[in-house]
Every structure is written in structure tokens, then in C-alpha cells.
Design a protein that fits this description.
Helices cover 84% and strands 0% of the residues. With 241 residues, it is an all-alpha fold.
Length: 241
């Protein structure tokens, strides 16, 4: 790199530090990081709840008409949310669905949590379904032989084992949610990406600012990956006991 290039990098770094420290841009970054975490965590929790319910409707014996109906509705739900971009779903919920049902005054953060939760539910449903199918059928038969009903056996015996099987995949879904939150600025939420965009606009220094943003996401994903591996190791240790 020539001297001019080195000078530009130093100037850009100094400009970023000035925006973060002197102009207290770090407050906006911390607030953006908080909103990113809230949307991702709450979205995953909602997604797990929705996804588990949808997965159960797919694996339950299709003996009655309403079981078949719920299974078909689940297919439509999954196809709808997996077949359209996250940002489109976010915009439709914020500008169309919520105003349509009289909830136009709901905070943007709540809309984003609902949108990400419903989107995640579609993906988690397929993850959970594969986890349930990976559990030996004898587990369900053993539960029924002990006098437990289908849903009680599913809840107390099958689902806990399924969650252990799919835990790493759920971790990947959480990482995907964290990265996808970068689109919430479309509905006026200052997440981590929007915070750095504002800093770049103020300093007119885009290269270093966006490299710093990428580094932040890399660190976040790295920390999440470590936590997932530690939890996975603990789950395996509990299985051996």
C-alpha cells in the first residue's frame, strides 16, 4: 500500500474514533446493538414456539379432517414465509397488516419482533419436524405403553430429545436472525447497521466505518458460536450421565 493509501486509512480511523468517542456515537451503537439483540432473541423465542406447534401438526397422525386441514395450513404458512424476502414481510406488516387491524400506533420494534418471529417460525418448523422424525419411533410407543396420551408423550419424551438433536441448527437460525436484523432500518429502527450508517453519513468516511461494522458482526457471531458449542457440549455430557 502506498503512503497515500496508508494516510487515508489513518485519517478514516481517526474520523471514526472522533465520531464514536468525541461525538458520543458509541451511545447510538450501543442502542443499536441493544435493539439488534432484542429483535433476534425475541424473534427466535417466538419462532421456536410457532415452529414447534407447526411441526407437531405435520407429524401428528392425519386421521381426522381437522388434522389434515392444519397440516395444509402449515404448508401454506411455511411456503409463504420461506418464499418471500424478510424485508418484504417487514414492510407489509408495518405498512399494511398492522394498520389494517387497527394497530398502526404499535412501536416499530414490536412490529419487527413479530415479523422476525413469524419468519423464524417457518424455518424452525422444518428444523423441529426433522428433529422429531430423528427420534426413534420406539420412544413414542414406549410412552403410549406407559399410559401417556399422544400429546403428553410428544411433550415429555419426544420433544426434549428432538431439541437436543437440532440444537446446533437452532443456533445457526439465531445467527441468521442476528444478521437479518440489518433490514429493520426500513421501518425506522436504529439497529447496529443503521447506527454505523448514521456515523458514516456524519463523517463521510465509509470505508473504515463499514469495515468496523463488519467486524462487529463477526465478533457477535463468533461469541454466539462459542456459546452454542459450550451448551452443546454440556448437553452431550448430561446425556452420558
Amino acid at each position: 500500500m502506498d503512503t497515500k493509501g496508508q494516510f487515508d486509512l489513518v485519517t478514516g480511523w481517526n474520523s471514526l474514533v472522533e465520531q464514536l468517542i468525541t461525538n458520543k456515537g458509541y451511545l447510538k451503537v450501543l442502542a443499536g446493538l441493544r435493539d439488534t439483540a432484542i429483535i433476534a432473541v425475541a424473534g427466535l423465542v417466538i419462532g421456536i414456539i410457532i415452529g414447534t406447534l407447526l411441526a407437531v401438526t405435520k407429524v401428528v397422525p392425519q386421521k381426522r379432517w381437522y388434522n389434515k386441514m392444519f397440516s395444509r395450513l402449515t404448508d401454506v404458512y411455511v411456503a409463504l414465509f420461506r418464499g418471500t424476502p424478510m424485508v418484504v414481510q417487514l414492510l407489509i406488516m408495518f405498512y399494511v397488516l398492522f394498520p389494517l387491524i387497527g394497530l398502526s400506533g404499535v412501536p416499530s420494534l414490536v412490529v419487527a419482533i413479530v415479523a422476525f418471529g413469524m419468519n423464524s417460525g417457518a424455518y424452525v418448523s422444518e428444523i423441529m419436524r426433522s428433529g422429531i422424525l430423528s427420534v426413534d419411533k420406539g420412544q413414542m410407543e414406549a410412552g403410549r405403553a406407559l399410559g401417556l396420551g399422544y400429546y403428553k408423550t410428544m411433550t415429555n419424551i419426544v420433544l426434549p430429545q428432538a431439541v437436543k438433536n437440532i440444537f446446533p441448527t437452532l443456533g445457526n437460525e439465531f445467527i441468521a436472525l442476528v444478521k437479518e436484523t440489518s433490514v429493520v432500518s426500513f421501518i425506522a429502527i436504529t439497529d447496529l447497521t443503521k447506527a454505523f450508517q448514521d456515523i458514516a453519513s456524519s463523517s463521510y468516511e465509509y470505508l473504515i466505518t463499514y469495515l468496523a461494522l463488519a467486524l462487529c458482526y463477526l465478533v457477535i457471531v463468533f461469541l454466539i458460536t462459542i456459546c452454542i458449542r459450550l451448551l452443546e457440549r454440556r448437553l452431550r455430557a448430561s446425556e452420558r450421565k
